[in-house]
Amino acid sequence: MKNLFKCLLSILLFSQPIIAQTVKKAEKAQAGYYRMKFGDYEIIALSDGTLPLPIKDILLNTAEGQVEKLLAKNHITKPEASINAYLINTGSKLILIDAGTSELYGPSLGFLPNSIRAAGYQPEDIDMVLITHIHTDHTGGLMDGNHMVFPNAKIYISKAEVDFWLGKGQKEKAARRLAPFFDEAHLKVDPYLKAGKVVTFNYDQEIFPGLLPIATPGHTPGHSFFSLENKGEKMMFWGDIMHVAEVQFSDPGVAILFDVDPVAAVLQRKKAYAEAAEKGYWIASDHISFPGIGHIRAEGTGYVWIPISYSYQ
Fold it and tell me: What percentage of the chain carries pLDDT values higher than 70?
């Protein structure tokens, strides 16, 4: 699976025709952060980059022609997943939700540290890193080679997630397709674990005032949402409840190859969509097009994404 990604990524990146010799190559990347006020807090969406997706090969439970029709309807000719992370500045703590990829997924990713710096902070400033799950598009950025990217932070991960990915003998018991994720989990999380920097949690108490982890197993056994409330506002950080918005909002029953338990993942997604549409709170999603913040509303048997309105304030 990992080799499939790398192969298709290379094709997508390097087989594009040259449009005109007179067009200068852009020398600067896209903006990698977006700020918003949230009660007394500031939330900053941070981009790690984007990843071209071989959608036809990785989506499950689809009907013939369904994916192509939905992509065309949404004017998507080059399917990509944003890899987003979110920084919460409470005034007393800097709390990062998920950590990007580092070198693991190719040249279009690994920009999270740059985005943090561009937003006015340093990776060394981060006090807490909350991990939705241990897949390495969320934990790869914890390490840069042998260097801890967040040396002053505690890393918060659900106990169920740590037990599944880092427990003795777990790799041998799991499906073969998951083997690379176990290897990368040890590569990226073990150094923090050995340094005593990993804090495991269950789901019975807040990690920080107003910040509550919520069990959402399915995509992985210890997958977590994080619910943030302050001054009457609420935001739910979704992690990997979805990957291809243009398809999975229209049909929440569509799963993805990376789900450890696709049936449970679908149930969690349907529940999350219904609650978010009914209650109207903010959503922050790791794989919706950057900045990945917005609301959803129900429409027929599916849902519609309403992205945050751009504000310069």
Answer: 91
